[in-house]
Known about the structure:
By secondary structure, the protein is an all-alpha fold.
Amino acid sequence: MLANYKLLIQITITCLIVLTVNLLSFFYQPMISNNGGKGMDGVDYYKISEDIVKSETPEARAPFVYRVGTPYLVSMIFPDDLLFGFKLINIIASSLIAFALLFFLNLYFRVSYLNLIPVSLYALSWHAPLRMSWYYPVHVDPLAILILILLLILLKRLIHSFSFLSLILFTLLSVLGVLLREKNIIPAFVLILYHTEFKFKDKLPFFSISFKNLKFKYLLPFALAIFTILVLHFLVKSTVSYSFLAVAVTWIYKKSIFVLLHSLFYSFGPILFLILVNFKNCYKYIGENKELGLILVIIFVLGAAGGSDTERIFYWAMPVVYLIFLVSIERISIKNYKYTFGLLVISQLISIRSFLLTPDYPNTYNSILPFLTPLSDRLPLLDLWVWHADTRVNIVSFGTYILLFATLYIIFVFESKKLKF
């Protein structure tokens, strides 16, 4: 009874958070002006919708042309105003993500008001779908991430209390999910890996694989999702030559460990510090919930192998990273570490640009030196992405993150020693 009451309060507060962010974004966040509000990749998504409205074969650049889900929905509901359709559908989907995230956290973590912290971080982060959809309406991430979280919820049920109804829903959502973005095949792949045994040995071959626990029913969602992707490739037309494998190898070669680490900082902010200082507990928790570790590994590999917006790819791990953050925060008393948490809260709000607008693109502003992030809305938009930013901005930003983590550690150790006296 108490848990239901707490959940009701959480849902109510989540409603208020989402409504507040949407209202502030409506009044203060201008839409990107590039390509008439379509942005960069949005040109391709918009073109897909136009082609569907004209009953023509969708034709655009790969890999964007294979993400037909959201453009199709927009073309069916808003054929006369595609730009408005993208904006409205993405804002609605982005708002629903906050509630899906809340239920995901409550599924793994005890029903606690602490769960509202990740919901708030999602709502306040400038690059997360909720705020991004007001600025950059023509994209496909909101519905895709919403389906991903629903798949993660069903994945938990399939692993710990299997039912055929859950399997049917999981399969249908996997097929629907890959129409939105290819990454939604991850949960189906994790379901297979979870029931596959990997044993490591001291001599060649260094590991062996056993499929004795892998049944056909666990293969079905992945097989149908792959089949959907293959069929989709015959139904649309790419205007460029594209190879997923070639692109992945190229990006892995290009991205240094510093780029990947910096992108992680940009994606999730200083809350990663709490995960680092509670690494043993976090590792133990992931070991007890193997599916979470598999999701993290796969998404981080995709971040290294994906396109230039590494932060957006890493952010697909948001539900799991925020959950691990909750596991960390539960083991540290805020009362006993008030200076650590005080600095952490301030720096986190700065890092995710909670109170700053996203600048238009293109613009004529000059780069400014950052503290974690450039503390202004008058700067080149590309300075907010590690791969695209001015080199000096990246060096200073990365340096301030390292300095912040070192300072947090010193304060954390000092407060830990105080507790022993």
